[in-house]
Design a protein that fits this description.
By secondary structure, chain A is α/β, with parallel strands linked by helices. Helix content of chain A is 40%, strand content 16%. Chain A folds into two domains: 157 residues, Aspartate Aminotransferase, domain 1 (Alpha-Beta Complex); 234 residues, Type I PLP-dependent aspartate aminotransferase-like (Major domain) (Aspartate Aminotransferase, domain 2), CATH 3.40.640. In chain A, the strands form three sheets. Chain A has a seven-stranded mixed beta sheet, sandwiched between helices. Chain A has a four-stranded mixed beta sheet with strand order 1-2-3-12. A three-stranded antiparallel beta sheet of chain A has the order 11-14-13. In chain B, helix 1 crosses helix 2 and helix 1 packs across helix 3. Classes of the chains: A alpha/beta (400), B mainly alpha (82).
């Protein structure tokens, strides 16, 4: 049998999407003008689906730092840090990052996906048990599968459900690792960290929080949900990405655990990937400085998020999260309607993300916006106005 | 101890909300392929099964658990005193 034949139904699904307009899952941006503007199909479009929370991708200091590293260290590292050595830049970044995160140790990975793969599969092995939230990101699921650990899934954001499953698994023989996310990527909701920490104190486990969408965004110091909740000492391991608030690519894991550095010899995603390029490392290091010295970015992001959240609410759109968050997901009745609306929004001048099952929780279809500190109030109002024109023109879009 | 048929009847009730095409359920029904439900829905269904029988079913064994009959075996093996 043809090895790719199993994807035939996917071809049909994709064909249906293309019959309704552009390739919503493979959009081409011809020029990117700023964190919030690009040229698509010859037209300037407002970007509202980039995860560019701090709007730092065009920051002059970051660009300058990247250019200097490119000139001083070349285009790439051409190998992994284990086999081919680290550049001083990597070690500098890990030091800066540990300082920013207020952790003793930090390890840099080449992508955010690999940060989860390396951390979770590095921490947990076949004799351990990982408890993961049902709505976890795919990188967490993949990491869990790679770890070989026993995997128990608990109901999304439900600490009681986790407790019930911990009680059932009283015979866990090895370590127990619970994995949560600061902000969940599809609905934009946060983990109720206090409740999970209470369960941790009662049952005992090690806690990893993926702050991919919350680093830079939440907390007085921008360190994420645990910072905001005042519970950093209860979180054993923090994972995050450089591709969102830091405006680059790569990821990290950090901890105060005395043996944490051993992940450098156990995390295969770290050991067998080429290390991040000099320019990337340098821009991230500068981005950390920016995040530390410009808390107004976080305030602006919060302001923009609230404005969009309340604007959408007043239109009567069904949002997947009750509290304002930089991720604002609008629920749409079905896949064809979501595809049609996504196309109409793009034609009208705004780019958002389309999110479809099985990539979404509970089989829902979403038009997902991510807000940036770089959006002006006028941008936010324009996005609200375009949703009003486009989405409300199709009343059946909102019915289930 | 529950019989295969009793477990099967419970599984059929639990899977019905996911069986949107209303496929007729047999013991040899392939949960994902025959019911055309995605991986996330399979995991959601299994979570219901865990709660119904008060057992844990690690995700690791789902790869080997294709049919309702396979799942009956998993439940039997994990129910205490069964």
């Amino acid at each position: 049998m043809d090895i790719l034949e199993k994807y035939r139904p996917l071809v049909e699904r994709h064909k249906k999407m293309l019959e309704l307009g552009q390739n919503a899952v493979g959009l081409r941006m011809d020029d990117v003008y700023s964190p919030t503007r690009a040229r698509i199909d010859g037209k300037e479009i407002i970007l509202a689906g980039t995860n560019n929370y701090m709007a730092i991708t065009f920051d002059p200091a970051c660009i300058k730092a990247g250019q200097k590293a490119l000139e001083d260290y070349g285009t790439g590292t051409t190998g992994s840090r284990i086999a081919n050595g680290s550049y001083a830049l990597h070690l500098d970044l890990e030091k800066s990052l540990a300082g920013f995160l207020n952790r003793k140790h930090s390890i840099v990975f080449s992508t955010g996906y690999q940060a989860n793969l390396g951390s979770i599969a590095g921490l947990a092995g076949p004799r351990d048990t990982v408890y993961l939230d049902a709505d976890s990101h795919s990188s967490i699921y993949d990491a869990c599968a790679l770890s070989g650990a026993r995997l128990i899934r608990f109901k999304h954001n439900n600490a009681d459900d986790l407790a019930k499953r911990l009680r059932r698994s009283s015979e866990d023989e090895g370590g127990r690792l619970v994995v949560l996310e600061g902000i969940y990527s599809m609905f934009g909701d946060r983990a109720p960290l206090r409740e999970f920490v209470d369960v941790k104190h009662e049952y005992g486990f090690e806690l990893l929080v993926d702050e991919a969408h919350s680093t830079g965004v939440l907390g007085a110091n921008g360190r994420g949900l645990a910072d905001e909740a005042g519970l950093e000492s209860d979180v054993d391991f923090v994972v995050g990405t450089f591709s969102k608030s830091f405006g680059a690519i790569g990821g990290f894991a950090a901890s105060d655990h005395e043996l944490f550095e051993m992940l450098r010899f156990a995390a295969r995603a770290y050991m067998f990937s080429a290390s991040p390029s000099p320019a990337t490392i340098a821009t991230v290091k500068e981005a950390i400085k920016q995040l530390e010295s410009r808390p107004e970015l976080r305030q602006k992001l919060r302001h923009n998020s609230e404005r969009l959240h309340h604007g959408f609410k007043s239109l009567g759109l069904e949002l997947c999260c009750d509290v304002p968050s930089p991720i604002i997901a609008v629920r749409i009745a079905d896949e064809p309607t979501a595809v049609v609306l996504w196309n109409r929004l793009l034609e009208a001048g705004v780019y958002v993300n389309i999110a479809l099952p099985p990539g979404t929780p509970n089989g829902v279809c979403l038009l997902r916006c991510s807000v940036s500190a770089g959006h002006s109030e006028q941008d936010i109002d324009k996005i609200i106005a375009l949703f009003e024109t486009v989405v409300l023109s199709l009343p059946e879009a909102l019915q289930d | 101890m529950a019989t295969d048929d009793e477990i099967f009847a419970k599984l059929c009730r639990l899977i019905q909300p996911f069986n949107t095409a209303d496929v007729k359920l047999e013991k040899n029904t392939d949960i994902a392929a025959d019911l055309n439900i995605d991986s996330v829905s399979v995991m959601d269904f299994v979570m219901e099964v865990e709660d119904e029988f008060d057992i844990d079913i690690p995700l690791n064994i789902l790869g080997e658990t294709r049919t309702l009959s396979d799942l009956i075996d998993v439940v039997k093996a994990r129910v205490k005193g069964a």
